[in-house]
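Late entry, written up from scratch paper. The run itself happened at the end of the previous shift, but nothing got recorded in the book at the time, so transcribing now.
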Amino acid sequence: MGCCESVEVDGSQYATPNGGAPQESAVKAPEKALRKVDCSDEPREIICGGLRLRYAFLSQKGYYPDDPHKPNQDAYSITERFGSKESNDAFFAVYDGHGRDGDLCAQFARDKMCGHLAKHIKKAKDRELKSNKAEIEQRMERHANPSSIDPLAYIELPRQAFQQACSKAHVDCNMAMHQDQSLDDSLSGTTAIGVYVHGRRNRITICNVGDSRAVLGKTSSLAKGTRGALKAYPLSRDQTPYRRDERVRIRATGARILSLDQLEGLEPILDESQNQDDLELGEELDEGGDPPRVWSPNGDYPGTAFTRSLGDAMAEELGVFAEPEMLTREIKPDDRILVIASDGIYEFLTNQSVIDICAKFTDPLEACRAVVAESYELWLQYELRTDDITIIVVFLDEIMEANLMEREYITSRRDDLMSARKASLTMMSPQELEESEHMEAGADSDDEFQLGQDAFRPVRNRMTKEKAQEIKKLKESVESDFADELAEEVDIEKLFTEKTVSEKARIADAIKTSVMFRNITEDQREMIFGVMEPISVKAGTWVIKQGSFGDRFYIIDDGRFEVRIVGEGDRDDGSGGSLIHVYEGSVAKHSHPCFGELALMYSAPRSASIIARTDGHLWGLHRSAFRQVLAQSQGTRKELMNTLAGIPMFSELEEEEIVALAVSFDEIAFGRGENIIEQGHFGDTMYVITSGSCELVRLVKGTARNSPIKAGDYFGHEVMIDHQKYLATVVSLQTTTGWKISRSKLNKAVDIEKLKKAPRKKG
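Output as recorded:
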């Protein structure tokens, strides 16, 4: 959401004098906000003290069928040599606007934040200068031309002082936005995620307001020296009503926290007193696009899905303020990739998925393109629109250790720094403290802790109600014989072709981040490689047509392909509609975007047309082949489908939904005497037994009632819809195997509303 412009001054792109606003910012450029894509011409490299940074950025305007001329409401700024030409520091930031004037709010923050930050950093350094005046004067006297040196260049602020300067800068920028007459921020505003690079200390400070994110990719212990296997570490926490601490703070103002369905009376309002923890979150939790929001006690406004922002004057009295949460940490040799992005990236992608995609590339610009392409495809699958998407990818290389630069600057005494460290640790949970102590043994005063999964709003893996209704409408408009044709089985033996090692590697790379392939076995993976169909296309070929039923998932091996959509009520003039995205696959660049993933699950009409812009090569996977691979890999998978079809809770599901449900189950095995579930305990998993035996024990008024469980039986279903406690205890009597599914996976696989309508078997 927001306008995106690079920061340019005197023709020198990305740099601003004294950390101030770019000279061109005084002149608004709405045409730039209407660009479909704004990105780096090429990757850029800078040296910040002991760090070499290679970075690129990309911002893509969202697709809004009801408002095709809506400007991009994302903005970004990249400032090299922050504060002065001699500076070793840099500042990267992304702003995500919202509301009617969201683009103007994001532009305002982009243009003004650096100036406010530079002002407060200077004030803090002036105070440090007074405390260290004698030592700084001695250092200046040693210089050949002392008058040419800014004494503040010798000062590095301690963590606490720098974070205070950042906090004041955000608050001042917010106040200035309220006072600016060129925009209306009463019900508009912007989030802000900024990363300040302290070059001479090899450290970064992250400032976060809202729900955009900064994520770090660290080399795993098994892949030292490579970018191939990185683990994602969050550097910011989403500030949303999903977090209990934020809910408590917001409710203290008298505000209400409700989803839209709760506001309209379609869903029950839960008793907060019974929910003392964060809502059930996590990177794998399904969420259908109806998050909790902040509402006034006196009316149905402002409806923000975040708890902090710049602007949003009417929401400010409800606790939606601009004070940032901050983290300062040292950059270490294992830190390889830094990603700063708006929430449009993370709507359907986990932190780890984003880092996995970036890790495929040595070029940060190609990494940006790949992440945006994957995110955009998921938006088109699950929504009627796409969000604005902005990302900055920075590849990190340490070229000098921080302790070798300590003589270049003056900072507060170490005991002051350690006291600040102690203060930061008091805010951590015991688990975070243990992680911090483990990771920072022997380190200096930097913050360092891993944020739990409750720090984030959930990643969405299910389409919205509006999208589901659109698909249903399209299904009804298509002749039944066409749908029957698509339901035919394919002969996977005829489809099977041997692939080269290189081809397998490219296919594996492409499906690495897809949810559909996350739990497949090695045997299944080899079978999928074999049944992938090689498809050569000529420029101008329509690979898929909007509204037609889809039966294949595609990987672009090479070539460029346009994504076009005909808006509701519009007629196709033969072009396929408005151009909203371009996929580019390249063997040389290791870029292989995918599309059509939903076709592996449902006979759903395509939501867009894909047209080859150049000659190209694709890999296609037929839905029937995919299902047969999953079913053939385990003889019991088909038995599972039969069992599921006979469970009352699933009686309303169609055959294809039963298949999708069966695919979502995971294998389990228990030894003799294990308690699989326990009566009276909350749970989120149901089980189906395929071999072995168990005993179900239920206490009723102090009396135990026992019954056997054998192959083909199921239990635990009572907790899948209503979040109930288990009604019985189940103990394995011998080695037992079977299947399990969690509530979150169930929600991803089928429409939960259908399950609520079905008759239920009591436990």
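The first strand starts at residue 8 and ends at 9.
(Scratch paper discarded after transcription.)
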